[in-house]
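SAMPLE LOG
Freezer: B-3
Tube label: C17
Construct: single chain, 158 aa
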Amino acid sequence: MSSIPRHLDPRNPQPQNLKQPSRDSLRSLAHSHMSQASSGGGGDESDGAPDAFQIPRLPAEPVRLDVELPEADLDLTIDFNSILAEAAPEAGPELDKVQKRASNVMKLTEQNEKLKAELRAMTERLEAAERRQQELARAQAQRGQGAGQREAGAGSAH
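STRUCTURE (predicted):
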């Protein structure tokens, strides 16, 4: 059975000739019913149905356990610089080798660029010299053809 009084339960029809309770009387009745349910009194618990107004309450204080914990001898004062020092790589012989190798690579790269520039300049000079030789060879061939034609023309005129 429900813990709500029968005359307030909407499932039970009420005779029309009875006087309807006011809102204030319903509120006071519900409030008194809730206070009885929270204190453990009232309510029909014989049928095993839970009380509709019962609110589970938490204990006022948590249960304290007597557990002895060992004391820690930890120094929790940490300096920001000590954190950065741990994160920074250590300067050791391996780091020196890597830095030296990187320096050598940079020097070799610079030398390579200089040698490439010199090679381009030499290639351009060589191509220019070959073009001049070809022009001179054409010019000589044209002069040789022109001189042979003059001699042939001079011999027929005699």
